[in-house]
Amino acid sequence: MNYADYPLIILSKDRKTEVRRVTPDDAGKYRVALPSGEYILRCATTPAEGHVRAKEPQPFTVVSR
Fold first, then answer.
1. Could you write out the three-class secondary structure of 11-55?
2. 13-46 per-position pLDDT tens digit
3. Shortest CA distance to 26 belongs to which of 49, 56, 6, 53?
4. Which of 22, 28, 56, 58 is least buried, going by the fewest C-beta atoms within 10 A?
């Protein structure tokens, strides 16, 4: 599987605004800087998608240190 073909999409908490689109490396790892807040992580289900349809979006929170 080529992880770069399946970008990760970070959405605002209300799921209406795309905050970032992240491309994982060959091992599927990624790093992104975000301001503190609540977000939703979705993954593209096919490499050709121009939009995202993830089966199980994952909410997460970023806190400042």
1. EECCCCCEEEEECCCCCCCCCCCCCCEEEEEEECCCCCCCCCCCC
2. 999 999 999 998 988 899 999 999 999 999 876 6
3. 6
4. 56
What CA–CA distance (Å, rounded) separates 51 from 31?
A: 21
Given this model, what pLDDT does residue 40 score? 96
For the record, the structure tokens of 50 come out as: 């121009």
Q: Which fold has domain 3-62?
A: Immunoglobulin-like (2.60.40)
Are 12 and 59 spatial neighbours (Cβ–Cβ below 8 Å)? no
Give me the pLDDT at residue 54, please: 53
Distance of alpha carbon 37 from alpha carbon 61, whole angstroms = 6
Token output for 2: 């080529």
Domain ranges of the chain: 3-62
